[in-house]
Protein backbone atom coordinates (compact mmCIF):
# COMPACT_ATOMS: atom_id res chain seq x y z
CA UNK A 1 0.00 0.00 0.00
CA UNK A 2 1.07 3.55 -0.67
CA UNK A 3 0.82 5.40 2.65
CA UNK A 4 0.10 9.09 2.99
CA UNK A 5 3.75 9.99 3.69
CA UNK A 6 4.93 8.21 0.54
CA UNK A 7 2.14 9.88 -1.42
CA UNK A 8 3.40 13.29 -0.31
CA UNK A 9 6.93 12.46 -1.44
CA UNK A 10 5.60 11.18 -4.76
CA UNK A 11 3.59 14.36 -5.32
CA UNK A 12 6.69 16.44 -4.66
CA UNK A 13 8.55 14.36 -7.25
CA UNK A 14 5.71 15.08 -9.68
CA UNK A 15 6.20 18.77 -9.00
CA UNK A 16 9.92 18.50 -9.76
CA UNK A 17 9.14 16.75 -13.06
CA UNK A 18 6.62 19.47 -13.87
CA UNK A 19 9.22 22.17 -13.29
CA UNK A 20 11.64 20.36 -15.63
CA UNK A 21 9.22 20.59 -18.57
CA UNK A 22 7.96 24.09 -17.87
CA UNK A 23 8.33 26.28 -20.94
CA UNK A 24 9.55 23.41 -23.16
CA UNK A 25 7.91 23.50 -26.60
CA UNK A 26 9.35 20.28 -28.08
CA UNK A 27 6.77 17.46 -27.63
CA UNK A 28 9.34 14.66 -28.00
CA UNK A 29 11.67 16.34 -25.51
CA UNK A 30 8.81 16.67 -23.01
CA UNK A 31 7.93 12.98 -23.49
CA UNK A 32 11.58 11.96 -23.04
CA UNK A 33 11.99 13.96 -19.82
CA UNK A 34 8.77 12.56 -18.33
CA UNK A 35 9.52 8.90 -19.12
CA UNK A 36 13.11 9.16 -17.88
CA UNK A 37 11.91 10.81 -14.66
CA UNK A 38 9.37 8.02 -14.08
CA UNK A 39 12.15 5.44 -14.27
CA UNK A 40 14.54 7.46 -12.13
CA UNK A 41 12.20 8.79 -9.46
CA UNK A 42 9.51 6.11 -9.28
CA UNK A 43 11.72 3.06 -9.94
CA UNK A 44 9.67 1.89 -12.91
CA UNK A 45 11.11 -0.93 -15.01
CA UNK A 46 10.36 1.17 -18.05
CA UNK A 47 7.99 3.93 -19.12
CA UNK A 48 6.58 4.91 -22.49
CA UNK A 49 4.62 7.79 -23.96
CA UNK A 50 2.56 7.66 -27.15
CA UNK A 51 1.14 10.71 -28.93
CA UNK A 52 -2.08 10.59 -30.93
CA UNK A 53 -1.81 11.25 -34.65
CA UNK A 54 -3.59 14.31 -36.01
CA UNK A 55 -6.44 12.20 -37.38
CA UNK A 56 -6.95 10.53 -33.97
CA UNK A 57 -6.79 7.10 -35.63
CA UNK A 58 -3.51 5.85 -34.16
CA UNK A 59 -0.87 6.41 -31.49
CA UNK A 60 2.84 6.89 -32.20
CA UNK A 61 5.49 5.95 -29.63
CA UNK A 62 7.71 9.02 -29.14
CA UNK A 63 9.62 8.21 -25.92
CA UNK A 64 10.71 5.10 -24.04
CA UNK A 65 13.00 4.91 -21.01
CA UNK A 66 14.34 2.22 -18.70
CA UNK A 67 14.44 -1.43 -19.83
CA UNK A 68 13.65 -0.41 -23.40
CA UNK A 69 14.73 2.83 -25.02
CA UNK A 70 13.88 2.12 -28.66
CA UNK A 71 10.73 3.56 -30.24
CA UNK A 72 10.63 1.49 -33.43
CA UNK A 73 9.38 -1.88 -32.18
CA UNK A 74 6.05 -3.64 -32.64
CA UNK A 75 4.30 -1.00 -30.54
CA UNK A 76 5.75 1.97 -32.42
CA UNK A 77 2.34 2.56 -34.00
CA UNK A 78 -0.80 1.43 -32.17
CA UNK A 79 -4.23 1.78 -33.83
CA UNK A 80 -6.80 3.56 -31.67
CA UNK A 81 -8.63 0.85 -29.71
CA UNK A 82 -5.96 -1.84 -30.30
CA UNK A 83 -4.09 -3.49 -27.43
CA UNK A 84 -4.39 -2.00 -23.96
CA UNK A 85 -2.72 1.28 -24.84
CA UNK A 86 -5.10 1.89 -27.72
CA UNK A 87 -8.11 1.03 -25.53
CA UNK A 88 -6.97 3.47 -22.83
CA UNK A 89 -6.86 6.21 -25.48
CA UNK A 90 -10.16 5.24 -27.06
CA UNK A 91 -12.13 4.73 -23.83
CA UNK A 92 -10.27 7.49 -21.94
CA UNK A 93 -10.17 5.36 -18.79
CA UNK A 94 -7.00 4.98 -16.62
CA UNK A 95 -5.97 1.39 -15.90
CA UNK A 96 -3.80 -0.36 -13.30
CA UNK A 97 -2.96 -4.07 -12.97
CA UNK A 98 -0.57 -5.99 -10.73
CA UNK A 99 -0.99 -9.32 -12.57
CA UNK A 100 0.44 -8.44 -15.95
CA UNK A 101 1.47 -11.99 -16.99
CA UNK A 102 -2.10 -13.19 -16.37
CA UNK A 103 -3.84 -10.43 -18.34
CA UNK A 104 -5.52 -11.74 -21.50
CA UNK A 105 -4.52 -8.65 -23.50
CA UNK A 106 -0.77 -9.14 -22.96
CA UNK A 107 0.79 -9.99 -26.31
CA UNK A 108 3.75 -12.00 -24.91
CA UNK A 109 3.13 -13.62 -21.51
CA UNK A 110 6.56 -15.30 -21.46
CA UNK A 111 8.20 -11.92 -21.97
CA UNK A 112 6.45 -10.53 -18.86
CA UNK A 113 7.52 -13.54 -16.78
CA UNK A 114 11.11 -13.52 -18.02
CA UNK A 115 11.53 -9.80 -17.30
CA UNK A 116 9.65 -10.03 -13.97
CA UNK A 117 7.13 -7.38 -15.06
CA UNK A 118 4.31 -7.45 -12.54
CA UNK A 119 2.68 -4.01 -12.47
CA UNK A 120 1.27 -1.86 -15.26
CA UNK A 121 -0.41 1.54 -15.15
CA UNK A 122 -1.66 3.54 -18.11
CA UNK A 123 -3.25 6.97 -18.20
CA UNK A 124 -4.83 8.93 -21.09
CA UNK A 125 -3.49 12.43 -21.73
CA UNK A 126 -6.63 14.53 -22.11
CA UNK A 127 -6.86 18.19 -23.12
CA UNK A 128 -10.56 19.00 -22.87
CA UNK A 129 -12.31 16.49 -25.11
CA UNK A 130 -9.14 15.74 -27.12
CA UNK A 131 -6.85 12.76 -26.55
CA UNK A 132 -3.22 13.84 -26.86
CA UNK A 133 -1.75 10.43 -26.07
CA UNK A 134 -1.13 7.80 -23.41
CA UNK A 135 1.50 7.53 -20.67
CA UNK A 136 2.26 3.97 -19.47
CA UNK A 137 4.58 2.54 -16.81
CA UNK A 138 5.73 -1.03 -16.14
CA UNK A 139 7.15 -2.18 -12.81
CA UNK A 140 8.80 -5.20 -11.23
CA UNK A 141 6.81 -4.71 -8.01
CA UNK A 142 3.09 -4.33 -7.37
CA UNK A 143 1.71 -0.82 -7.76
CA UNK A 144 -0.54 0.67 -5.10
CA UNK A 145 -3.98 1.77 -6.36
CA UNK A 146 -3.14 5.28 -5.12
CA UNK A 147 -0.37 5.41 -7.72
CA UNK A 148 -3.07 6.31 -10.24
CA UNK A 149 -3.60 9.54 -8.28
CA UNK A 150 0.11 10.33 -8.58
CA UNK A 151 -0.02 9.49 -12.28
CA UNK A 152 -3.09 11.69 -12.65
CA UNK A 153 -1.20 14.73 -11.32
CA UNK A 154 1.80 13.97 -13.53
CA UNK A 155 -0.44 13.53 -16.57
CA UNK A 156 -2.23 16.82 -15.88
CA UNK A 157 1.11 18.65 -15.87
CA UNK A 158 2.39 16.71 -18.87
CA UNK A 159 -0.80 17.35 -20.84
CA UNK A 160 -0.58 21.11 -20.31
CA UNK A 161 3.03 21.15 -21.50
CA UNK A 162 2.35 18.85 -24.47
CA UNK A 163 -0.75 20.75 -25.56
CA UNK A 164 1.16 24.04 -25.50
CA UNK A 165 4.02 22.48 -27.48
CA UNK A 166 1.75 20.84 -30.07
CA UNK A 167 -0.36 23.96 -30.55
CA UNK A 168 2.75 26.13 -30.77
CA UNK A 169 4.03 23.98 -33.63
CA UNK A 170 0.82 24.77 -35.52
CA UNK A 171 0.40 28.40 -34.50
CA UNK A 172 3.77 30.02 -33.98
CA UNK A 173 5.40 30.63 -37.38
CA UNK A 174 9.01 29.59 -37.93
CA UNK A 175 11.69 32.23 -38.32
CA UNK A 176 11.85 33.61 -41.81
CA UNK A 177 15.29 33.62 -43.37
CA UNK A 178 15.36 37.25 -44.44
CA UNK A 179 12.68 39.18 -42.61
CA UNK A 180 13.16 37.58 -39.18
CA UNK A 181 10.35 36.57 -36.80
CA UNK A 182 6.81 37.66 -37.65
CA UNK A 183 5.66 40.19 -35.05
CA UNK A 184 3.33 38.82 -32.42
CA UNK A 185 0.82 41.60 -33.09
CA UNK A 186 0.61 40.48 -36.72
CA UNK A 187 -0.04 36.91 -35.63
CA UNK A 188 -2.76 38.03 -33.22
CA UNK A 189 -4.36 40.25 -35.85
CA UNK A 190 -4.65 37.27 -38.22
CA UNK A 191 -6.43 35.22 -35.53
CA UNK A 192 -8.89 37.98 -34.61
CA UNK A 193 -11.93 37.93 -36.86
CA UNK A 194 -14.50 40.06 -35.07
CA UNK A 195 -12.47 43.11 -34.05
CA UNK A 196 -9.31 45.06 -34.78
CA UNK A 197 -6.26 44.63 -32.54
CA UNK A 198 -4.80 47.75 -30.89
CA UNK A 199 -1.08 47.81 -30.06
CA UNK A 200 0.36 49.94 -27.26
CA UNK A 201 4.10 50.19 -26.63
CA UNK A 202 7.14 48.88 -28.46
CA UNK A 203 7.05 45.21 -29.35
CA UNK A 204 9.79 42.96 -28.05
CA UNK A 205 10.68 39.32 -28.64
CA UNK A 206 8.94 36.99 -26.18
CA UNK A 207 9.67 33.39 -25.19
CA UNK A 208 7.68 30.95 -27.34
CA UNK A 209 5.63 29.81 -24.33
CA UNK A 210 4.47 33.38 -23.60
CA UNK A 211 3.71 34.04 -27.26
CA UNK A 212 1.66 30.85 -27.42
CA UNK A 213 -0.34 31.81 -24.31
CA UNK A 214 -1.26 35.14 -25.88
CA UNK A 215 -2.15 33.49 -29.19
CA UNK A 216 -4.28 30.89 -27.44
CA UNK A 217 -5.98 33.63 -25.45
CA UNK A 218 -6.97 35.45 -28.65
CA UNK A 219 -8.24 32.19 -30.18
CA UNK A 220 -10.50 31.61 -27.16
CA UNK A 221 -11.69 35.22 -27.20
CA UNK A 222 -12.58 34.93 -30.89
CA UNK A 223 -14.78 31.96 -30.03
CA UNK A 224 -16.51 34.16 -27.43
CA UNK A 225 -17.23 36.97 -29.92
CA UNK A 226 -14.53 39.40 -28.83
CA UNK A 227 -15.46 43.04 -29.49
CA UNK A 228 -12.32 44.77 -28.16
CA UNK A 229 -8.69 43.62 -27.91
CA UNK A 230 -5.53 45.49 -26.95
CA UNK A 231 -1.93 44.24 -26.63
CA UNK A 232 0.26 46.35 -24.32
CA UNK A 233 4.01 46.18 -23.80
CA UNK A 234 5.32 47.98 -20.72
CA UNK A 235 8.60 47.84 -18.77
CA UNK A 236 7.71 44.80 -16.66
CA UNK A 237 5.12 42.75 -18.53
CA UNK A 238 3.02 42.25 -21.61
CA UNK A 239 -0.75 42.28 -21.19
CA UNK A 240 -3.81 41.45 -23.25
CA UNK A 241 -7.03 43.36 -22.49
CA UNK A 242 -10.32 42.36 -24.09
CA UNK A 243 -14.10 42.55 -23.90
CA UNK A 244 -16.15 39.55 -25.02
CA UNK A 245 -19.51 37.81 -24.61
CA UNK A 246 -19.82 35.51 -21.58
CA UNK A 247 -20.49 31.83 -22.41
CA UNK A 248 -24.19 30.93 -22.06
CA UNK A 249 -25.46 29.41 -18.83
CA UNK A 250 -22.40 30.57 -16.89
CA UNK A 251 -23.33 33.31 -14.44
CA UNK A 252 -20.62 32.94 -11.79
CA UNK A 253 -16.92 33.73 -11.99
CA UNK A 254 -15.60 32.41 -15.30
CA UNK A 255 -12.29 31.43 -13.68
CA UNK A 256 -13.85 29.31 -10.93
CA UNK A 257 -15.29 26.71 -13.30
CA UNK A 258 -13.01 24.01 -14.68
CA UNK A 259 -15.42 23.69 -17.64
CA UNK A 260 -15.10 27.36 -18.54
CA UNK A 261 -13.48 28.09 -21.93
CA UNK A 262 -11.03 30.27 -20.00
CA UNK A 263 -9.88 27.48 -17.64
CA UNK A 264 -7.13 26.48 -20.07
CA UNK A 265 -5.91 30.08 -20.29
CA UNK A 266 -5.98 30.38 -16.52
CA UNK A 267 -3.72 27.33 -16.15
CA UNK A 268 -1.24 28.75 -18.66
CA UNK A 269 -1.21 32.11 -16.88
CA UNK A 270 -0.40 30.41 -13.57
CA UNK A 271 2.24 28.26 -15.23
CA UNK A 272 4.01 31.33 -16.63
CA UNK A 273 3.83 33.27 -13.38
CA UNK A 274 1.20 35.68 -14.69
CA UNK A 275 -2.37 36.56 -13.83
CA UNK A 276 -5.74 36.30 -15.54
CA UNK A 277 -8.63 38.38 -14.24
CA UNK A 278 -12.19 38.81 -15.44
CA UNK A 279 -14.93 41.30 -14.57
CA UNK A 280 -18.29 39.88 -15.69
CA UNK A 281 -21.54 41.74 -16.10
CA UNK A 282 -24.24 39.15 -15.29
CA UNK A 283 -27.04 41.15 -16.96
CA UNK A 284 -25.38 42.00 -20.26
CA UNK A 285 -23.39 38.75 -20.35
CA UNK A 286 -20.32 40.79 -21.24
CA UNK A 287 -17.03 40.43 -19.42
CA UNK A 288 -13.70 42.23 -19.38
CA UNK A 289 -10.52 40.16 -19.40
CA UNK A 290 -6.90 41.00 -18.61
CA UNK A 291 -4.04 38.54 -19.15
CA UNK A 292 -0.73 39.79 -17.77
CA UNK A 293 2.56 37.91 -18.27
CA UNK A 294 5.73 39.30 -16.63
CA UNK A 295 8.90 39.15 -18.71
CA UNK A 296 11.11 36.26 -17.62
CA UNK A 297 8.52 34.97 -15.14
CA UNK A 298 8.55 31.48 -16.65
CA UNK A 299 11.94 30.92 -15.02
CA UNK A 300 10.69 31.86 -11.57
CA UNK A 301 8.70 29.45 -9.45
CA UNK A 302 7.19 30.35 -6.10
CA UNK A 303 8.09 27.97 -3.29
CA UNK A 304 5.76 26.90 -0.49
CA UNK A 305 5.82 24.30 2.28
CA UNK A 306 2.67 22.63 3.60
CA UNK A 307 2.30 21.61 7.26
CA UNK A 308 -1.20 20.63 8.36
CA UNK A 309 -2.40 18.90 11.51
CA UNK A 310 -4.58 16.37 9.68
CA UNK A 311 -3.21 14.11 6.94
CA UNK A 312 -6.31 14.68 4.79
CA UNK A 313 -5.69 18.44 4.81
CA UNK A 314 -1.99 17.88 4.18
CA UNK A 315 -2.83 15.90 1.05
CA UNK A 316 -5.56 18.32 -0.05
CA UNK A 317 -3.35 21.42 0.14
CA UNK A 318 -0.42 19.55 -1.42
CA UNK A 319 -2.67 18.77 -4.40
CA UNK A 320 -3.86 22.39 -4.42
CA UNK A 321 -0.31 23.75 -4.51
CA UNK A 322 0.60 21.45 -7.40
CA UNK A 323 -2.51 22.47 -9.34
CA UNK A 324 -1.58 26.12 -8.78
CA UNK A 325 1.89 25.57 -10.26
CA UNK A 326 3.66 26.20 -6.94
CA UNK A 327 7.01 24.60 -6.11
CA UNK A 328 6.74 22.38 -3.02
CA UNK A 329 9.64 22.30 -0.61
CA UNK A 330 10.36 20.73 2.76
CA UNK A 331 10.74 22.97 5.80
CA UNK A 332 14.00 22.50 7.77
CA UNK A 333 13.59 20.62 11.04
CA UNK A 334 15.70 23.20 12.88
CA UNK A 335 15.63 27.01 12.63
CA UNK A 336 18.18 28.43 10.19
CA UNK A 337 20.03 31.70 10.23
CA UNK A 338 17.79 34.73 9.87
CA UNK A 339 19.71 35.79 6.78
CA UNK A 340 18.82 32.60 4.89
CA UNK A 341 15.88 32.84 2.51
CA UNK A 342 12.99 30.57 3.41
CA UNK A 343 10.01 29.42 1.42
CA UNK A 344 6.50 30.41 2.39
CA UNK A 345 4.81 28.20 4.98
CA UNK A 346 1.17 27.17 4.47
CA UNK A 347 -0.07 25.79 7.78
CA UNK A 348 -2.80 25.40 10.38
CA UNK A 349 -0.37 24.44 13.15
CA UNK A 350 0.46 26.96 15.84
CA UNK A 351 3.69 25.07 16.61
CA UNK A 352 4.97 25.20 13.02
CA UNK A 353 5.88 28.84 12.64
CA UNK A 354 9.62 29.45 11.97
CA UNK A 355 10.25 33.15 12.58
CA UNK A 356 12.07 33.68 9.27
CA UNK A 357 9.41 32.07 7.05
CA UNK A 358 6.40 34.03 5.77
CA UNK A 359 3.22 32.33 7.01
CA UNK A 360 -0.08 31.77 5.23
CA UNK A 361 -2.60 30.59 7.79
CA UNK A 362 -5.24 27.98 6.89
CA UNK A 363 -8.41 29.16 8.64
CA UNK A 364 -10.86 26.35 9.53
CA UNK A 365 -13.66 28.60 10.80
CA UNK A 366 -14.52 32.27 11.00
CA UNK A 367 -13.89 32.27 14.77
CA UNK A 368 -10.57 30.41 14.76
CA UNK A 369 -7.40 31.89 16.18
CA UNK A 370 -5.04 33.55 13.70
CA UNK A 371 -1.36 33.72 14.71
CA UNK A 372 0.07 37.21 14.97
CA UNK A 373 2.91 36.18 12.64
CA UNK A 374 0.53 35.28 9.78
CA UNK A 375 0.84 37.50 6.72
CA UNK A 376 -2.14 35.97 4.93
CA UNK A 377 -5.18 33.82 5.62
CA UNK A 378 -6.85 31.29 3.32
CA UNK A 379 -9.95 29.17 3.85
CA UNK A 380 -10.77 25.57 2.98
CA UNK A 381 -12.75 26.54 -0.13
CA UNK A 382 -9.86 28.36 -1.84
CA UNK A 383 -9.20 27.42 -5.48
CA UNK A 384 -5.74 27.01 -7.12
CA UNK A 385 -5.59 30.39 -8.86
CA UNK A 386 -6.62 32.20 -5.66
CA UNK A 387 -3.93 30.36 -3.70
CA UNK A 388 -1.30 31.29 -6.28
CA UNK A 389 -2.30 34.95 -6.02
CA UNK A 390 -2.03 34.92 -2.22
CA UNK A 391 1.38 33.20 -2.32
CA UNK A 392 2.59 35.74 -4.90
CA UNK A 393 1.39 38.63 -2.72
CA UNK A 394 3.13 37.26 0.37
CA UNK A 395 6.35 36.58 -1.57
CA UNK A 396 6.36 40.28 -2.50
CA UNK A 397 5.89 41.32 1.12
CA UNK A 398 2.20 42.19 0.78
CA UNK A 399 -0.20 41.17 3.55
CA UNK A 400 -3.45 39.38 2.69
CA UNK A 401 -5.22 39.25 6.03
CA UNK A 402 -9.03 38.93 6.26
CA UNK A 403 -9.70 42.63 6.46
CA UNK A 404 -7.59 43.18 3.32
CA UNK A 405 -8.84 40.28 1.21
CA UNK A 406 -11.94 42.12 -0.01
CA UNK A 407 -10.97 45.47 -1.62
CA UNK A 408 -12.89 48.47 -0.34
CA UNK A 409 -15.70 49.81 -2.52
CA UNK A 410 -15.27 53.13 -4.25
CA UNK A 411 -17.52 56.05 -3.31
CA UNK A 412 -19.63 55.48 -6.44
CA UNK A 413 -19.94 51.73 -5.76
CA UNK A 414 -21.00 52.40 -2.18
CA UNK A 415 -23.55 54.94 -3.38
CA UNK A 416 -25.05 52.44 -5.84
CA UNK A 417 -25.14 49.70 -3.16
CA UNK A 418 -26.92 52.12 -0.85
CA UNK A 419 -29.59 52.82 -3.49
CA UNK A 420 -29.95 49.10 -4.26
CA UNK A 421 -30.56 48.46 -0.56
CA UNK A 422 -33.48 50.91 -0.81
CA UNK A 423 -35.07 48.81 -3.54
CA UNK A 424 -34.27 51.05 -6.51
CA UNK A 425 -33.89 49.54 -9.98
CA UNK A 426 -31.03 50.21 -12.38
CA UNK A 427 -33.10 52.75 -14.34
CA UNK A 428 -34.02 54.64 -11.16
CA UNK A 429 -30.40 54.67 -9.97
CA UNK A 430 -29.19 55.88 -13.37
CA UNK A 431 -31.70 58.75 -13.37
CA UNK A 432 -30.84 59.78 -9.83
CA UNK A 433 -27.06 59.73 -10.39
CA UNK A 434 -27.30 61.12 -13.95
CA UNK A 435 -25.40 58.18 -15.46
CA UNK A 436 -26.34 55.46 -17.96
CA UNK A 437 -27.85 52.12 -16.99
CA UNK A 438 -24.83 50.31 -18.44
CA UNK A 439 -22.58 52.34 -16.11
CA UNK A 440 -24.73 51.29 -13.17
CA UNK A 441 -24.41 47.64 -14.20
CA UNK A 442 -20.66 48.07 -14.63
CA UNK A 443 -20.27 49.33 -11.04
CA UNK A 444 -22.54 46.57 -9.73
CA UNK A 445 -20.44 43.98 -11.56
CA UNK A 446 -17.23 45.36 -10.03
CA UNK A 447 -18.85 45.26 -6.60
CA UNK A 448 -19.89 41.62 -7.05
CA UNK A 449 -16.32 40.76 -8.01
CA UNK A 450 -14.77 42.60 -5.06
CA UNK A 451 -17.16 41.07 -2.54
CA UNK A 452 -17.15 37.62 -4.22
CA UNK A 453 -20.94 37.82 -4.13
CA UNK A 454 -23.17 35.59 -6.29
CA UNK A 455 -25.94 38.18 -6.66
CA UNK A 456 -26.93 41.73 -5.76
CA UNK A 457 -28.71 40.74 -2.57
CA UNK A 458 -25.60 39.06 -1.25
CA UNK A 459 -23.49 42.05 -2.29
CA UNK A 460 -25.74 44.43 -0.35
CA UNK A 461 -25.56 42.14 2.67
CA UNK A 462 -21.74 41.89 2.50
CA UNK A 463 -21.32 45.63 2.07
CA UNK A 464 -23.65 46.28 5.01
CA UNK A 465 -21.85 43.77 7.24
CA UNK A 466 -18.56 45.57 6.55
CA UNK A 467 -20.20 48.92 7.42
CA UNK A 468 -19.47 50.27 3.94
CA UNK A 469 -23.10 51.36 3.45
Throw out a few tags for this protein.
single chain, 469 residues, alpha/beta, Beta-Lactamase, Heat Shock Protein 90, Rossmann fold, 4 domains, six-stranded antiparallel sheet, five-stranded mixed sheet, 15 helices, 21% strand, globular
Characterize the structure shown.
- Helix content is 38%, strand content 21%.
- The protein has 15 helices and 16 strands.
- The protein has helices at 4-21, 27-42, 83-91, 109-114, 147-171, 184-191, 208-223, 263-271, 311-323, 384-395, 402-405, 411-421, 426-433, 437-451, 456-465; strands at 46-52, 58-66, 77-79, 95-97, 119-127, 130-139, 197-200, 228-233, 237-245, 275-281, 286-294, 303-307, 327-328, 344-347, 359-363, 374-379.
- The N and C termini lie far apart (56 Å).
Amino acid sequence: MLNSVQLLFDLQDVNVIGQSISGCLDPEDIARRVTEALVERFKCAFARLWLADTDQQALTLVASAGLYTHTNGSFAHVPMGAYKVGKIAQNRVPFLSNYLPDESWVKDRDWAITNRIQGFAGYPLMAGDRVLGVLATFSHDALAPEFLEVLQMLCLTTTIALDAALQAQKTVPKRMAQSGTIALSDQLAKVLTSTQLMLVGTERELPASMAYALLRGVELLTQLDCSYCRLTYDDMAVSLDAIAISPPYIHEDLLERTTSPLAELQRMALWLGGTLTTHPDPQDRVFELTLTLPYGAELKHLSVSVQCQQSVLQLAFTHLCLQAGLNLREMPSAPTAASETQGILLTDRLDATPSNSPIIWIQHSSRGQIPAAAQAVVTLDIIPQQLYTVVAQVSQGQAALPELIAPALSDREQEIMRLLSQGLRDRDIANRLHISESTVRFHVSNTLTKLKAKNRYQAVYEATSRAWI
